[in-house]
Amino acid sequence: MGINGAVSIDDGQRRARLGRRLLLAADGRAARVEEVADAVVGLHASDPATVYLSACARLGDPSAAEVERALYDEVSLVKLLSMRRTIFAVTEEFAPYVSAAAARQIAAKERATLLKHLAEFAEGWSEARLAETERAVLAVRGEATTAELGADVPALRETMLMSAGKPYEAKQSVGSRLLRLLASDGHVRRCRPRGSWLSSSYPWAPVAPWPDVPVREAKAEVVRRWLARYGPGTVEDVKWWTGWTLGDVRRALADVGAVEVALDGGAAGLVLPGDEGPVAEPEPWAALLPSLDPAVMGWRGRDWYLRPEDVPALFDRAGNAGPTVWWCGRVVGGWAQRADGEVVWRLFEDAGAEAEAAVAAEARRLALWLGAVRVTPRFRTPLERGLVA
């Protein structure tokens, strides 16, 4: 027992839960990408490659085609600008909760920011004109890129000169900002990209509105799912992962009846009721996970799976994680793909012969399904750059 009689969950148990619940142990891999998305409570999608790499690391039979099936053929996965103002790919069933809990608030802020920028950096724009332009975009049927939509809705082609006179001044099209806003509001979705699955050039299509979910209920559901997969976690972990106010976080934790447990080092953790008991250790496992993978970005407090001295090599200055090598629930190194397709890695410590062999097997598995595809993370880190140099 821990402080004040709370059940203790040590770092070893947390790593066992991570391996099992985030589908990283080899015997727990999924058959379908929807299972993966629900297991990690949403696949990070700021970098198009991350969705594929994160999913395939957890699939028994990895393939880009399986991810494309869900994203574009059946549309059982949808991308939303949501928690932490990050794009997540979530299941269609979970999307209404994510929309109500996070995406709509993000969209409201995006709209206010866009209106401010239009007033400052463009001419002839008002709230009424913006609303009129949105209606015109949604009246266009079928799939179309932002550029193609601009042929039917000329207002999309207008630009804003941002940071005029500064070395980093740039023009932004109204269309690029407006389509992002409509996606956050749940009015349009990203369709199959023009080009490979690594491309960020994709058309848009209108979507039917999701069922309306009360905000408080939605926030509770998001936190319930997070605790089920990432618990135990601290209040600070939940606040960081969601991007919500402390008040919203505490209310949602109370609504799901979160139970306090004691963590190594004396911190107070939280789990769902009935989840205080031990989890069986999985068989030893290795994983090569991509930049921004949910496992490395799942908690704010990371010392129990990532040594602080390794952070500068694996993260960029904005806090984006690069590709990581895992062994039994701990980050032990990083990896990269070279121009010739070779998957290379570096370990920060001697993890033993079993770990070396398991990492090598995962590298072969990754290279096999990637085939001729070459992946460069959008957010590059010192170790990744060093490995491909």
Structural account:
The protein has 389 residues and is of the alpha+beta class. It has helices spanning 11-21, 33-39, 48-56, 64-73, 95-121, 127-139, 146-152, 174-184, 215-230, 235-242, 246-255, 311-314, 353-370, 382-388, and strands at 8-9, 43-44, 77-81, 87-91, 159-162, 170-173, 188-190, 204-206, 259-263, 268-271, 286-289, 324-327, 330-337, 343-347. Strands 11-12-13-14 form a 4-stranded antiparallel beta sheet. Strand 9 (259-263) and strand 10 form a beta hairpin. Helix 5 (95-121) packs across helix 9 (215-230). The termini are far apart. The model has no long low-confidence stretch (mean pLDDT 94).
Defining traits:
single chain; 4-stranded antiparallel sheet; alpha+beta
Helix content: 40-55%
* Beta-strand residue fraction: 5-15%
- Assembly state of the chains shown: single chain
Tertiary shape: globular
Rounded radius of gyration (Å): 22 Å
Q: Main beta sheet: strand number and arrangement?
A: 4 strands, antiparallel
Mean pLDDT over all positions: 94
Number of helices: 14
Number of strands: 14
Q: Which strand order do you get reading across the main beta sheet?
A: 11-12-13-14
- Uncertain regions spanning at least 5 consecutive residues: none
Q: Classify the secondary structure makeup into a structural class.
A: alpha+beta
Helix and strand run: EHHEHHEEHHHEEHEEHHHEEEHEEEHH
Terminal CA distance reads 50 Å
Question: TL;DR?
Answer:
The protein is α+β, with helices and mostly antiparallel strands and 389 residues long.
